[in-house]
Structure formats: C-alpha cells, structure tokens
Amino acid sequence: MYSDTAQARIPTPTAPTAPSAPTWDPQQYLRHAGHRARPFLDMLTRIPELPTRPARIADLGCGPGNVTTLLTDRWPEARVTGFDLSPEMLHRATEEYAGPTAGGGSLDFRHGDLATWLPEEPYDLIVSNAALQWVPSHPGSFAAWINGLRPGGTFAFQIPANFTAPSHALLAELCDAPRWRARLAGHGARYIHLLEPAEYLARFTELGCAVDVWTTTYHQLLQGPDPVLDWVKGTALRPVLTALGDDRDAVDAFLTEYRDRLREAYPAGPRGTVFPFRRIFAVARKEA
Ligand SMILES: C[S@@+](CC[C@H](N)C(=O)[O-])C[C@H]1O[C@@H](n2cnc3c(N)ncnc32)[C@H](O)[C@@H]1O
C-alpha cells in the first residue's frame, strides 16, 4: 500500500543523475486547468487584506499565467509580476495576459529562477502555486522573502504533497527499473525536499509571522482515457520526457509501461477516474 503522507518512503534511486531543468508544455499543462486552479482559489480565500493600495504582488513560478490573472480579480488595481524559468510558459503568459488590467493595475511576466530570486522592491504579497516543489532549496529563501514584504504583507504558497501516491511512486519506481535506470534514475523522485506541514509552520513562526498551514486532499474526478497519465504529462513526467527527448521509441515504450501500471492503480469507474491529490498550503503574514 502507498501512504499519502510519508515523503521519506520514496525509493532512493540507485544511480542518481542530476536531471536538467525540464521543458514545459503549456498546452498539456492547461488540459487540467480547472482542477489545477482550484487549490489557488482556496488559498486566495485565506489571504488577508494587503497593507497598501495599489498592492505590489509577485507570483513565483507563474507558469502559463492563467492563475496569476486571478490575483487581479481580487486586487484589480494591483501591479502584479509573474516570475518563471520556462521560456515556453513565459511566452504563453505574456501573449495571453500581459498588459494593463481592467481595474487600472498591470500584469507582466519576467524570467526569474526561484532558487536565487530575491524581492527587488517591497511587496505586499508574494504567492507561489504548485511551483516550490521544483526548488529543493525553497525553505532557505523564506527569511529573505518575508524580509522583502512590507509590514503586514503576506507570503502564501501551495505545493503538491502527493509524491508517495501511486501516480508518483510508480513513476519513481519505473525510472529506477533496470530497463530505464541508466537514462532516468532520479527523474521520478525529485520531490523529497518538501518539509512536513508542521515544519513549514515552525519556519514561519520562527520568522515572527502569523501562520496558517493546512493540507487538503482533493478527490478529483478526471474524464477521458488514461486521465492520470494525461495529468502527469503536464507536470511530474516533464523531467522524463525532457530526458528522453526526441527518442520517440523510448518515449512510447516508457509511456506504455507507465500507463499500464496507472490503469491498475486508478481504474476507470462509470463516472470517471478518481485521482486523489494531497496538497500543502501555507499563508504567513508578516507583523504589521
Ligand atoms: C506546475 S507549474 C505551476 C504554474 C502556475 N503557478 C500554476 O499554478 O498553474 C510549475 C511552474 O514552476 C516553474 N518553475 C520550476 N522551477 C522553477 C525555478 N527554479 N524558477 C522559476 N520557476 C520555476 C515551471 O517553469 C512551471 O511553470
């Protein structure tokens, strides 16, 4: 049985390689945009009023920008900047959403690496949705990010915490199987650097913040054939697809093996396929 909680039980690859930054595919990622945006909307409801108007907001790991725009619904006059590392994601976000907003604010997107990003001016809100799991060093940046907030400002993030679920454990297992190990060891288990919710809470209280940390498991009902495979093609499979590159035969063989395992783990029901997905949330408000 797979546990939904213990990150540490993810198999350790026998011959770890350092996966390079994955190539992102905004179109594939957006195929499940509704389910992916839901946690962000839930997080928004827990973010308190911001200290200044118009507010200055950063979205770290903004992806294709569809979630970043939700910030301008809540704070229409805000100046919002999304930062991301992926040229494909930044291109999509800029094409679709950059420019002045209806409420008199603005939205722009810039290249930024979260491993080194520092607030370049005071922010009222720094958010990050489903991105910090890609940045193992993220807890080490919390002090600098909180320091870059105005008094009374907020840092809020959400990260998937699903890496011992079959979707991700099977991927890690397959990458480490004899057939794939030489090319893929380590590509399916990149997420062991997450902290437990209580540890996130402790980090922010130590930094003098008022903190709200919680977890939610979304019982997502997905439609279509092999929908869990389709889901991970937009996220957890990116490092594998990037590593296999143009080797079509290898991509097809890997996806077939993985798909068969997923079908067993997530059988299709009469109304769709249930794909439970656990996520950690943290909302930290700096002292006013
Ligand atoms: C799963 S997507 C989330 C996108 C968006 N926040 C959303 O909620 O839809 C993860 C994003 O994090 C970005 N990312 C990963 N590592 C990063 C890094 N070191 N610096 C900046 N962005 C990074 C990826 O390029 C990708 O766009």
TrEMBL record:
Keywords of this protein's UniProt record, alphabetized? Cytoplasm, Methyltransferase, S-adenosyl-L-methionine, Transferase
Enzyme Commission (EC) number: 2.1.1.144
| Catalytic activity from the UniProt record | trans-aconitate + S-adenosyl-L-methionine = (E)-3-(methoxycarbonyl)pent-2-enedioate + S-adenosyl-L-homocysteine
- UniProt record, GO biological process: antibiotic biosynthetic process; methylation
Keyword Methyltransferase among UniProt keywords: yes
Return one GO MF term.
trans-aconitate 2-methyltransferase activity
Can you tell which superkingdom this protein's organism belongs to? Bacteria
The record places domain Methyltransferase at: 57-153
GO cellular component terms attached to this protein's record: cytoplasm
Q: Where in the cell is it found?
A: Cytoplasm
**What is the top EC class of this enzyme, as a single word?**
transferase
Q: Where is the composition biased (Low complexity)?
A: 1-23
Enumerate the residue ranges of region (Disordered): 1-26
What task does this protein carry out? Catalyzes the S-adenosylmethionine monomethyl esterification of trans-aconitate.
Annotated family: Belongs to the methyltransferase superfamily. Tam family.
The protein in question is named Trans-aconitate 2-methyltransferase
Upper classification of the source organism reads: Bacteria, Bacillati, Actinomycetota, Actinomycetes, Kitasatosporales
